[in-house]
Amino acid sequence: MKKMVVVMMIMMVMVMVSEASMIEQTCKETPDFNLCVSLLDSDPRGSSADTSGLALILVDKIKGLATKTLKEINSLYKKRPELKQALDECSRRYKTILKADVPEAIEAISKGVPKFGEDGVIDAGVEAAVCEGEFKGKSPLTSLTKSMQKVSNVTRAIVRMLL
Amino acid sequence: MASSESLLPVTSQHDPLSESSSNSIPETRRGKPIHLVVYSGFLLIALYITLIVTHTRPVRTKGANDEKTAASRARLAGVSEKSNDHIWKISDDREGEAFAWNNTMLSWQRTAFHFQPEKNWMNDPDGPLFYKGWYHFFYQYNPNAAVWGDIVWGHAVSKDLIHWLHLPFAMVPDQWYDANGVWTGSATFLDDGSIVMLYTGSTDKFVQVQNLAYPEDPNDPLLLKWTKFSGNPVLEPPPGIGDKDFRDPTTAWKTSDGKWRITIGSKINRTGISLVYDTVDFKTYEKHDILLHHVPNTGMWECVDFYPVSKTKHHGLDTSVNGPDVRHIVKASMDDTRIDHFAIGTYYDSNGTWVPDNPSIDVGISTGLRYDYGKFYASKTFYDQHKGRRILWGWIGESDSEAADVQKGWSSVQAIPRTVVLDKKTRKNLIQWPVKEIESLRLRSKKFHKKIGPGTVVPVDVGPADQIDIEADCETSGGATLRGALGPFGFSILADQSLSEQTLVYFYVTKGKDSKLKTFFCTDTSKSTMANDVVKPVYGSFVPVLKGEKLTMRILVDHSIVEGFGQGGRTCITSRVYPTKAIYGATKLFLFNNAIDATVTASFKVWQMNSAFIHPYSSVDDLVVPSST
């Protein structure tokens, strides 16, 4: 019957609505709902991921953001040579995010020992904050470092759900 | 994306004119109510399904808000805050100078007499034991980086728990059942004196399982090579337990019917639990239906430990000892908070259960007992049959940034091994004390007797002050006879001459309404360094002081680690400290009294401590006779 088909479609829509809100449900428990949703919604893996999967998507965003920031740091050496010392320290800090924090977080979350993942994620925020501090208020990287701290906060909240 | 507002009700094919008539004849419309009922039924079912799907994920209350509440509750109870909270403040209260670690500062941080590998990351102690003249220590190790990952079992031996010699790795992830990590485990001595090791493996599919291993050559006192049982894994996560919530098997103990029994921590939802298994051969196991113990809202229990302590005797007990003279300790490492908790209670061998003496301070309760009120995790005890002691190992991680760890090339140390006994006087807490063998590192000492008035800081001239052992007892006189506080008073260690950097280890005595004195033992690292990328907590806890007792403290200072023992080890606090100025020759020691009107008389002795010269084993080491204790 046509009516049955319509009712079935309504039911399917309701189920779809509830699946999308897994991301919303998770993001509600983080310090920045909008950022969390926008990062996860924009990723194709987001719609079918469990909490662990969502955490790994965000760690990937941290990785991407760190890579982008390092590129920016490198381009600043020529444009702002007077900032060399601060840029050196930032470079060191952001390389730590890529070489230490991210791999640690990926391994820990995948293997079910999330506390080490929390360490790596927290540290990404710390390294970004330290880098920002190097410029004593006149940072050319503020929007990137602030982003990292925000993403770190959100990711940490989701990793803590796995504990 | 559809929303409920856009859902239009299915209109049944009824004549719109019929709605306006108030007295329509029922017989002509009999079909429609049934369609409406069916439709509403489906809608209700769909709504119900939606509700179930959106609410199966438990609403997380453990978010940032809960951490703050936990922290303030902890502050009220005078116990240490969750140290992670402090990192969050970096960008807000930048104390000014931009800061960069240089190699001079970083190389100073390495300890002289605490166990640590030559480089890279270490975490949990594993399978500690004494065998054929050597103390063995195994540990979680990352051969590739200064952060956690790629975990293997490191190995070291010592004649005296202080002078360690590094050996090759004992076990690496070379089987499918530990391909993703050779994780924490414990040793058991069988009746014939042979050793079996149970450890957690992370399989190639990321499942946590328990595996059996034993020495390849029991005649090798160094136990260099280990054989993994061909039938591994011997235990897989049971029904109802998550694949990633099943790790850290304990040392086994004998039951009254001659079987071996072990316990393994886990969780069910937010309840921390300890599973029980019996075995005769360590290869096949019977799982108990009843848990050893469980405590709601404590989260995952890692590194569970279970052992007897004597009510009357001053020595340690083998793990299998039981009887009327004995209390049993259940300890667990709380994954949520990174705190090790324990409780004292009664073990019932007949059904493998344990009940705490005081359920209000049960295992994992935030106001419950801890081995250490500072940084101290994944701890594990073993029975030292050589000297009849129960010895405690504890993993002390870093409190600095990972960039600094990567730059300096290492991360984490172990606490100095401590003896553990029940406090015979209070019967309500344990007493820990660094093993006596550490005294073999003591070089020259200086004795002091100082009386210092309120609001004073006095320098203590001991020469170098970054590798010292302090034993002190204090008395106060004068001070408020009305309600008030006495102190804080104690030592300012790892301080520079101008006190711009200092770590405070002290007593703080309050007098309550009932005139009863309540004493706290604390360590304040908030001004320990100018660096702004390290965690600088204030740690502290209530310490029982009995009538007639002087206040005593012992402090082991070893570069970036400080171990404080209040009242003979009733309350212990370990902290990590990273000064930038108070290093090498610039490190000073002070005695202070911040009381408003009480005078403190302190009698103390300070020893310079030698290095333990921890190094890789070579055959020459076999000939060295350690200084006797």
From TrEMBL, chain A:
Molecular functions (GO terms): enzyme inhibitor activity
Signal sequence interval, chain numbering: 1-20
Domain Pectinesterase inhibitor: 18-158
Gene3D superfamilies according to UniProt: Invertase/pectin methylesterase inhibitor family protein
InterPro entries (UniProt xref): C/VIF1, Invertase/methylesterase_inhib, PCW_Enzyme_Inhibitor, Pectinesterase_inhib_dom
A Pfam family that the UniProt record links to this protein: PMEI
SMART domains xref list: PMEI
Keywords, alphabetical: Disulfide bond, Signal
Entry similarity comment: Belongs to the PMEI family.
NCBIfam families, per database record: PME_inhib
Name of the protein in its database record: Pectinesterase inhibitor domain-containing protein
TrEMBL record, chain B:
Keywords assigned: Glycosidase, Hydrolase, Membrane, Transmembrane, Transmembrane helix, Vacuole, Zymogen
Residues in Glycosyl hydrolase family 32 C-terminal domain copies: 437-608
Keyword Transmembrane helix belongs to the record: yes
Biased amino acid composition, Polar residues: 1-26
Enzyme Commission number(s) of this protein: 3.2.1.26
EC class (word): hydrolase
GO biological process: carbohydrate metabolic process
Protein's UniProt keywords contain Thylakoid: no
InterPro entries per the UniProt record, alphabetical: Beta-fructofuranosidase_N, ConA-like_dom_sf, Fructan_Metab_Enzymes, Glyco_hydro_32, Glyco_hydro_32_C, Glyco_hydro_32_N, Glyco_hydro_beta-prop_sf
Segments forming domain Glycosyl hydrolase family 32 N-terminal: 114-434
Positions of the Beta-fructofuranosidase N-terminal domain: 16-106
Gene Ontology molecular function, alphabetical: beta-fructofuranosidase activity
Domain of life (superkingdom): Eukaryota
Subcellular compartments: Vacuole lumen
Pathway noted in the entry: Glycan biosynthesis; sucrose metabolism
Region (Disordered): 1-28
GO cellular component terms attached to this protein's record: vacuolar lumen
Name of one Pfam family that matches: INV_N
Similarity comment: family membership: Belongs to the glycosyl hydrolase 32 family.
PANTHER family: BETA-FRUCTOFURANOSIDASE, INSOLUBLE ISOENZYME CWINV1-RELATED
Protein name per Swiss-Prot or TrEMBL: beta-fructofuranosidase
